[in-house]
Amino acid sequence: MSNDIIANMITSIRNANLGKIKTVQIPATNATRDIAKILLREGFIEDFIDNEQNASFLMLNLKYQGKKKKSYITTLRRISKPGLRIYSNHREIPKVLGGMGIVILSTSGGIMTDREAREKKIGGELLCYVW
């Protein structure tokens, strides 16, 4: 078990996508809640439930389309790791698939997408790519 909560969340979502599983249970922290809110707002997941009885876990309902259950999340990749942090200013934030995907950043204004960080002109630590 690693101490990287975000990598554990990404791996759980990626494994659920491979198995076409609808619901994923992940540890609930402020960072995972913020990332789940971004994934919901950007349309990559259907919804998430912050369970009141067991406040230590979040339940994510993944979004699939069609009879073959094609996932809306095709690629989810961790950028910055505990051993190698990757930072970027607002001018150097990478664009994913020409703006079709998103980069999730941890900034001084909280966890946000690449578009929001460019609008606010703040940089930060690049957490993950989603497309």
Automatic annotation (TrEMBL):
Keywords: Chloroplast, Plastid, Ribonucleoprotein, Ribosomal protein, RNA-binding, rRNA-binding. Coiled coil: none annotated. Transmembrane segments: none annotated. GO terms for biological process: translation. PROSITE patterns: RIBOSOMAL_S8 (PS00053). One of the primary rRNA binding proteins, it binds directly to 16S rRNA central domain where it helps coordinate assembly of the platform of the 30S subunit. This is Small ribosomal subunit protein uS8c. It comes from Frullania nodulosa. The gene is rps8.
